[in-house]
Amino acid sequence: MKTPARGSAASSSLPRVVAASLIGTTIEWYDYFLYGTAAALVFGKLFFPNTDPLTGTLLSFLTYAIGFAARPIGALVFGHFGDRIGRKKLLVVSLLLMGGSTTAIGLLPTYDSVGVAAPVLLTALRLVQGFALGGEWGGAVLLVSEHGDQRRRGFWASWPQGGAPAGNLLAAGVLSLMTAVQSESAFLAWGWRVPFLLSAVLVGVGMWIRLAVEESPLFRQAVANRSETERAPLVGVLRYHWREVLVAMGARMAENISYYVMTTFVLTYAVTRAHFDKQSALNAVLIASAIQFALIPLFGALSDRVGRKPVYLVGAAGVGVWAFVFFGMVDTRSFGALVAAVSVGLVFHSAMYAPQAAFFSELFATRLRYSGASIGAQFASVAAGAPAPLIATALLKDYGSATPISVYVAVAAALTVLAVLCARETRGQDLAEVEKPAADGATVERPAVARESSR
pTM of the prediction? Predict the structure, then answer.
C-alpha cells in the first residue's frame, strides 16, 4: 500500500471535515456574538438598570470584555491537550461548554429579581464562554488545515473562518426577528431569552456532525513517528516559535479591533447617536454578515494564488482608511449608508480573516501547532477584541465624537501591517515539514523561519 502524501488526506473526507468545522464554529460564534449583541441592546437595562443608558451599556460591554480574559486560558488548556491527545476530542468539549453556558444565560434572573447576583452570574457564564472559544478556534482551523493539501489550503481552511459571520448572521437574525414580532416590553421581559435557549438545539446538531469526523492525519502521523507527543507544548512554543507567536498577535490587532467596532459597537452608535431603531441596526449587520460569509472563501482562494501576505496587507491597510469614512456614513442616518458602511468594513476584514487560518497553521510544527496558533490568536484578543467596544464607547462618551475611534482603528491597522511585513510568506508550505530544533542538536523538527533563511 502507498503511504499518503504528507499534508494531504483522502479527498472524500475533506468536505465532511470542512462541514463539521464550519457548523461547529458557527454555533460557537453564534453563542459568543449573541452575548455581544445582547450587551449592546438589552443587558444594560436588565442587569445594570440603575445607571444612565450609555453607562449601562458601558458596564454591559465590560462583562462582554471579561469573557476575552478567559480566552487565553482556554487557548493554553485546549492547546496543551490538543497537541497531546488530538484535535477532535477537544473540539467536542469546547462545543459542550459554549452551548451549556449560553443556554444558562437564557435562564438567568435579572437585576430586578436577585439584585447584584444577576450581573455576577452573567459575568461567570461569560467567562465560561470565553474559555470555550479560546480552545475552539485553533482546533477547528487545524483540523481542516491538516486534512487538506498545501495547494488549496487557504481556500479550505477559510471555511471554518466563515463560522464567524455565519454565527453573527444567525445571532443578529434571531434577535432581529424577535424585535420585529414583539413589543419592546415583551422583548425585555422574555423575548431576549429565546435566542440563548435556542443554543441547546444547535449544540445537539453540532455534536452529531462533529463526532463523525476523523482525527487529523498529520497529528496521527506525528504520534506514530515519535514515541510520545510533546510533553509541554507551551514550553516548546515559547522556545522554538516565539517569533511566530508575535507575528500572529500583531496580525490579529486590526482584524480583531475593526470587527468588534464595526459589528458590535456600531449597534450602540447607530441607536444612541444616529437614532436608528434597533431592528434597522441589526438588519444592517445581518446584511453585511451575509456578504462577508460569501467573501471569505473567495479571499481564502485568492491567498492560494497570490500569497497570504498581500491579501492580508490589503485588508489591514483598507480597514485603517475605511475607519475614517465609516462613522460619517452612519451619521447620515440613511439605512443604505449604514449597510454600505458595515459591508465595506467587513470586506476589508475578510481579506485579513480568510487567509488567517492557513497563515497561522503554516507557522508552527505539528506537535506544537494547536498551542502555537491558539496562543497567538487568543492572547492578542485580550488586547484587541476584548476592550474594543469598551474603548470605543468610552471615547464616544468622553469626546462626543467618532474621530478618536477612527484613530484607534487606524493605529491597530498600522501595527498589523508592520507585523505582517515582518512575517515570511507561507503559501504552499507543507505542514509536515514545518519543523523545530531538537534539544540534543539533531535535526528532527526545526522552525520554518530558520529553514527558509538557510536556503
Answer: 0.81
